[in-house]
Amino acid sequence: MSHLLKKPQHVVKSEGVTIVHDITGEQNNLEYVGFKVVDLEKGSFYGEQLNGLECCIVVLTGRVDVKEGEEIFENLGTRDNVFEQKPTDSVYVSNDRIYEVKAVTDARVALCYSPSSEQLPTKLIKADSIDVEHRGKYNNKRKVHNILPDSDPSANSLLVVEVYTESGNWSSYPPHKHDQDNLPEESFLEETYYHEMDPQQGFVFQRVYTDDRSLDETMTAENGDVVIVPKGYHPVGVPDGYTSYYLNVMAGPVRKWKFNNDEDHEWIVNRD
Question: Which residues constitute the signal peptide according to the record (predicted)?
Fold first, then answer.
């Protein structure tokens, strides 16, 4: 199995709290991005002290309360399944703060991290404030929920989006990359993809490769898997009959999403 493909681990943290993924630390070859998925049973709590990290808490499913300092955001979350395809609530918490998530119902939350040194205000990102964008044409169509885009100054480093790709379509396509710290031409952003499928027995193909092919991995990602993109192009193909969901987390030295397509496939963009 590719070292870039991470399967769910389901490690019990405490009563009612299960860590599905913990993609943090040097062993994951990521300097700027950290990612966790946590399952919470109704009434359970999960919290952290953010030492030198900022965090975007995304309520994937279920309902939760989030507390940070004197601020309490209650009954967050809008869906029981990500494939309801409606935006959800999120909370941004800056570095060196302490937060706590309480499950109002059974819930799954994604925790998106990046190193940070400048404290910013804690912010509720309400579902009804999220821009919904439709990208692509032909068999390159997807719907994007821009939770924390680079146009929103609420974070120091983090960029967070949700993407839906319908049956038989390609996403993150034509293949593009953002692995050069060379603005304004291109930005350096590491990335993670958290995948879900509808129906759940589905799969997608994701390739991660560089121009010189020093990195060239093609993976079969199944429901609940995470793919790490430290560099390179990273297209996703969705088989007939299945719908793909993924949550993207990106971060780098500059909070700007500026990518370049693979020149061999640039012609796809210019079709009539």
Answer: none
